[in-house]
Amino acid sequence: MNMYLISDNVDTLTGMRLAGVEGVVVHERDELRSELEKAVADKTIGIILLTEKFGREFPDIVDDVKLKRKLPLIIEIPDRHGTGRKPDFITSYINEAIGLKL
């Protein structure tokens, strides 16, 4: 199974290509939907990497694929600008999950 990157910037794609991961750069909603459909249809792709920006800007498209399909696995990764999450996102996630302040 291969990994495939759908990125919003060329720098992330270049870095992933150096690691042997092929991919594409898209910027528009329709481009994202089209590339996701192509990647999902390709049975050689087991993991689709998406930059976090797509999860924030187009959650309906990303969640639709995540919820309706077992494969490929979709993972959101930070891009070269870093993550859009708060520095303590793991701690706050645990606090919400168990109801205790750590």
What does this protein structure show overall?
This protein is of the alpha/beta class and 102 residues long. It has one domain (2-98): 3-Layer(aba) Sandwich (Rossmann fold). It contains 5 helices and 4 strands, in the order βαβαβααβα. It has helices at residues 10-18, 29-41, 52-57, 59-68, 89-98, and strands at 2-7, 22-25, 45-51, 73-77. The protein has a 4-stranded parallel sheet with strand order 2-1-3-4, sandwiched between helices. The longest helix is centred in the middle third of the chain and has 13 residues, at 29-41. The radius of gyration is 15 Å and the shape is globular. The mean pLDDT is 83. It holds the Pfam family ATP-synt_F. This is V/A-type H+-transporting ATPase subunit F. Belongs to the V-ATPase F subunit family.
Distance between the termini: 39 Å
How much beta, percentage-wise? 15-25%
Which CATH class applies here? Alpha Beta
Q: What's the β-strand tally?
A: 4
Provide the structure class.
Answer: alpha/beta
Rg, please?
A: 15 Å
One letter per element, helices H and strands E, the order comes to: EHEHEHHEH
Name the shape in a single word: globular
Oligomeric state: single chain
> Count of helical segments?
5
CATH topology: Rossmann fold
Could you name the CATH homologous superfamily? ATPase, V1 complex, subunit F
Low-confidence segments, ≥5 residues, pLDDT <50?
none
Strand order of the largest sheet: 2-1-3-4
- Helical residue percent band: 40-55%
Q: How would you state the average pLDDT, rounded?
A: 83
User: How many structural domains in the coordinates?
Assistant: 1
* Largest sheet report: 4 strands, parallel
